[in-house]
Amino acid sequence: MSQDLFIQSSITIRNSKIWKNGDLIFGKENEIDLSKFLKTIYRHANLKYPKFFKMDSLSKLGYLGTEILTSGNISNKETALVFANSASSLDTDEAYAETMQDFPSPSLFVYTLPNIMLGEISIRHQLNSENVFFVSREFDPSLFIDYCKALFYQKKVDNVLCGWVDLHNNDYDVFLWQIALSGGTEFNEEELKKLYLPTHE
Amino acid sequence: MRGVAVTGMGLVSAIGNNIDEAHRSLRNGNDGISLPEILTTNLNDLPVGEIKLSNSQLTKILELPKDHSYTRAAMLGTLAINELLSNSNFDQFPEDTGFISGTSIGGIDMTEEHFSDFIDKPEIRKYIQAQHPGYTTEKIAEYFNLKGVITTISTACSSSANAIMMGARMIESGKLKRVIVGGSDCLTRFTLNGFNSLKILSQEKNKPFDEDREGLNLGEAAAYLMLEADELVGEKEILGRVSGYGNANDAFHQTASSENGEGAYQAISQALKKAEIAGSEIDYINAHGTGTVNNDLSESVALKRVFHDTVPEFSSTKAFTGHTLGAAGAVEAIFSLLAIQNNEIYPNLNFNSEMSETSLKPVTQIQKKEIRTVLSNSFGFGGNCTSLIFQKDE
């Protein structure tokens, strides 16, 4: 049942810097605050997607990561989305909870679920594919590997876009990668950790 | 033999604190919709599906120490799994039993209760970490000394349906032999205010698939199934099999469903394909049917697209329980398995007239007939649509 899977490409976004396939492709010398950074990347990547401005920060991170990783094109519409994080949608939960004192905000409430980010990515790329979202204490390579292997084993998919997109108190950690049956680096725990860890502080 | 065996189940919901009570309510048409008594809220004129057990009563029933840090969802989940344990053949679960739990709220109930006191009262700071959805799962696992794969799925209202799908898939691919799957969610001011702000809560008891439906009632519940690989089943009674599942994204809107029900259509089609059955083999559909204008129309359109002029008999049981969010998929999985075991279809309460757009009429009275195959739908915000197929073990 063991099938070889490969990481075709990856992206990490941390501390106002972006690495694609291990290379620094965007970096501010001094860290800038999150909302400014998000707008800066949007412009830098020359994106034209007005829905971006309505999203919460977690969805913006997932959206931007996906756009830059895939150069705006997910050609296989069956690509499954397997995502996880630690803080769920806590940032927006807090913002929404504050509005409850006064008038609960529907536009914030709709983002009080982490998988809304997957909805945004699916809307952008018109994917009706399988989605799952896990909440774990920390980045857990074996969970991704087990789940993705089961997906491939059942011949459900040929491509998976995986993501760890965590956001709490303006501290963000974005790591996305694409998996397929060939090309790139072998998809195992060691390689995944190697890709995830170097820039992680 | 197709599909993964279900060998145990446990449930707590507004229509009963165990499966027998819930089954009796379903048969007698007794809903669990009432005004909130346990949840303190200014929105106390909105009907909900509330479990009439306070947190201190739950603490007593579960024999937890007074200074415990269980969230309400953790206590409800523990109560449901206690029932699962008592109807399994185990004194206690083998340590390698996996546990996959879905939730959309996690421990928000404790945060909203205690947030303003965290600074002054160090003794309640234990609830800070309880906000994390995984914490609720870990507390339940700790209670039962589960040491296998433990994970938490958060995909809104399809969370526990996805937990069932993941469990079945892990068993089929040989990664797990035995796993408890399901979900737990409790009522909170956070969700009640949020759904109210989206203007999708009904002032009255919800009326799924009715022309004049006005919205949903929120509910709370915990429901879990035991899935086991055939090699472990032995002489145990098999309650049914998970033979099909499909998940698709509607890719339309953050919270609304598309007009053509694309996500639902694809999830149902994939589940049928996985189960290797034709649509005509479905004996009953336990619909998602929340009672909102948007969902029920979108789901009806999807049913018509899949089944054309021969939509199988269907009902939504949310008029009994309210919409129990992350727990709904597992609650309705249990209702689907009860339908199979007892050869009956539970009614869609509060229905008066068909929707003009689709003219679909749900089953409105309890009905006896042979049920071998049930389709259960669970759709969530974020466009996450899951369909499960349960079949009689034969």
What does it look like?
The complex is a heterodimer of chains A (201) and B (394). Chain A has 7 helices and 8 strands. Chain A has helices at residues 34-44, 57-70, 90-99, 106-109, 116-125, 141-153, 189-196, and strands at residues 6-14, 17-20, 23-27, 80-85, 131-135, 159-168, 171-180, 185-186. The longest helix of chain A is centred in the N-terminal third of the chain and has 14 residues, at 57-70. Chain B has helices at 19-28, 55-61, 72-86, 108-114, 126-130, 133-143, 159-172, 189-197, 230-233, 262-275, 293-307, 318-321, 328-342; strands at residues 4-13, 33-34, 48-49, 98-102, 150-153, 178-185, 221-228, 240-249, 284-286, 314-315, 344-345, 367-368, 373-380, 384-391. Chain B is of the alpha/beta class. At the A-B interface, α3, α5, β5 and α6 of A face β5, α7, α8, β8 and α10 of B.
Outline the secondary-structure elements.
The complex is a heterodimer of chains A (201) and B (394).
Chain A: E1 6-14, E2 17-20, E3 23-27, H1 34-44, H2 57-70, E4 80-85, H3 90-99, H4 106-109, H5 116-125, E5 131-135, H6 141-153, E6 159-168, E7 171-180, E8 185-186, H7 189-196
Parallel strand pairs in A: 4-5, 4-6
Antiparallel strand pairs in A: 1-2, 1-7, 1-8, 2-3, 6-7
Helix pairs in contact in A: 1-2, 2-5
Chain B: E1 4-13, H1 19-28, E2 33-34, E3 48-49, H2 55-61, H3 72-86, E4 98-102, H4 108-114, H5 126-130, H6 133-143, E5 150-153, H7 159-172, E6 178-185, H8 189-197, E7 221-228, H9 230-233, E8 240-249, H10 262-275, E9 284-286, H11 293-307, E10 314-315, H12 318-321, H13 328-342, E11 344-345, E12 367-368, E13 373-380, E14 384-391
Parallel strand pairs in B: 4-5, 4-6, 9-10, 9-13
Antiparallel strand pairs in B: 1-7, 1-8, 2-3, 6-7, 8-14, 11-12, 13-14
